[in-house]
Amino acid sequence: MNDILEKYDYKSDWFVDYIREPENAMRVQNIEEMEEYLKGNHKIKYRSNEKFNGKEFEPRKIVLQYAKTILNFHTSYLLKNGVFLSGNENVVQEFEKVYKQGRFNQVDFDILESLIKHGEAYEYIYQDGSKIKSKVLNPEYSYPVMNRENELQAFIYAYCHDAIDYYTVYYPDVVETFNNKGGQLHKTGEYVNVSGLPVVYRNDMDEPRSDLEDYINIIDDMEDIISKTTDAYYKYLAGIPVSVGQRLKGEGLPSDVVGGGITLDDGGDFFFASNNFDTQGFEADYKQLMNSLLDISHTPAILMGKLDVSNLSEVSISMMYSLSEIKAGINERYLRSGFFDRWQKIRNILALQGITFNDDDFDTLDVVFQTMKPRNHSEIIENMQSLYDMGKISTETILENNPYVKDKQQEMNRLERESNRENDSG
């Protein structure tokens, strides 16, 4: 931390200068741009008006929110079934209690969503009475202070509200708050930091990058081609009436009727001249862009309704999700690295409450992810039944992996009550 403070001449308001550094400003700007994109502020919306038949024409500006669909898919694919803690039974029991009281499974959703959208997420663990809770910090207002080895030294959370700047500066042992209400920056509070610095989740410690940056250019082209094609259909396919030869009678075809007739001299002709609409070319271009989007985003075609699965086997369907499994594994790695830091902070707070674990027991703590990949539930249950008959699996492990059981402990309690009732009636 000394090298950071030295850079800013050990000023008490060093954090103000830090957040104004160009790299921090560019990072926050990129976060804001991704948020605007997800709100529907796409490039196609800035398409300028055109002239058609001597009049100004406002072209189509069709927005495709595929990025939001992809983001929701990958978040739910990895975390919809929740995460399961494994390891020493006493350690897991205490941590499961903390997770349930602090709603950590919901917090995990917010963290992964931020990771995919912005390439970074920040979580602060704190104690609220006897409960241990987590707060996901908005990356737009978050400024991690790293040393040259990319180790977190401090953390700044800064935002503006009603023309007043607010700052929260996290140090390993203390948290300080400031604001400039009244025109001058001044300290408003100082608190003991029980859990230490916030947990950092990043897909690249040097330069976090949003997954959306890989999709935006493709989606922009899809929006451009479908908008321009729709315009072309209405503007250039209406047809121009062409009459060849001399009219024999009448004043021409009435403009206010749908039906009617026109009599032409011998050898005359009448037809509508129009451009041909190349449906095959449009379909080929759009399909190629869609396939590229699905491949790059690791999204199965079945998700977008681009594939008929009526005659596919379970193995074939599983193969469709192979790219999604790869992406889930990458996201799992980012989450897991942050979870180890989270667990250490929870352990420290539990120790203050009198709940302690030795290092060997605590080091067994791990996390198991269960993705949404389609599975044959009957086959899973049959396999577990075979293992149970062989004496190679416990009832508790069966409940953990049972696709029909959402709460292992609750189901264990129910089984125990049923067993007691049977014993009493027997």
Overall shape: it is flat
Span between N and C termini? Answer: 69 Å
| Count of alpha/pi helices | 14
Radius of gyration: 31 Å
Task: Please identify the structural class as seen in this structure.
Answer: alpha+beta
Biggest β-sheet, characterized? 5 strands, antiparallel
The percentage of residues in β strands lies in 15-25%
What is the arithmetic mean of pLDDT? 86
Biggest sheet, strands in spatial order? 6-7-8-9-10
Quaternary structure annotation: single chain
Q: What is the strand tally?
A: 14
Q: Write down the secondary-structure element order.
A: HHHEEHEHHEEEEEEEEHEEHHHHEHHH
Portion in helices: 40-55%
Low-pLDDT parts are: none
Protein name: Phage portal protein, SPP1 family
Pfam family, one: SPP1_portal
What is the strand and helix layout of this fold?
Elements: H1 2-7, H2 14-19, H3 22-38, E1 50-52, E2 55-57, H4 66-79, E3 83-86, H5 89-102, H6 104-118, E4 120-128, E5 131-137, E6 142-146, E7 152-161, E8 164-170, E9 174-179, E10 186-192, E11 199-202, H7 216-236, E12 240-244, E13 269-273, H8 279-296, H9 314-320, H10 322-352, H11 359-362, E14 366-369, H12 377-389, H13 395-401, H14 408-425
Antiparallel strand pairs: 1-2, 3-14, 4-5, 4-11, 6-7, 7-8, 8-9, 9-10, 12-13
Helix pairs in contact: 4-6, 7-8
